[in-house]
Amino acid sequence: MNARLLCLSMVVGLSLPVAAQAQMLAPGLWELTTSNMKVDNQDLPDLSLILGQLKQQMTPEQRAMLEKQGITMAGKGVQVCLTPAQVASDSIPLTDPQSGCKQEVTDKTGNQWKFRFSCPKAQGTGVATFQSQKEFTTTVNGTFNATGIQQKGSLDTHAQWLGNDCGTVKPRA
Hints:
The protein is α+β, with helices and mostly antiparallel strands.
């Protein structure tokens, strides 16, 4: 389960901050779906299955904490609300500032940005490809240590804009 939570945090924490720096995104409700998740070349279950299991296991307090951070597990993936101010800024505060994660864009070519990241228990590289203001994909490869053992992981993320109205999904402060 720790590897699954780490993958989920990588989806949210690594996909959107890079994309936001492109200043190409529309504000509003976004849904991130993940596919091709692997740990040590072993396929992990589909994210929707993992999210279903997490929803059942999470306490109301844990759900409230995620929602307070602007993250809702709904639909096919993770939903986040981006404000116009967040999209216009150089970064979008979707990761916990106390997480210790750092990210650097290493190459910008056309609609594709390459980046590297470093967190206390994970590091690696990725590519963000912007199809439009309302859609982008990321591919991330790296190593992590969620269980005391160094492991390799990879995942693909698809982010789709759902609309201007975020509904009950609160923007992250």
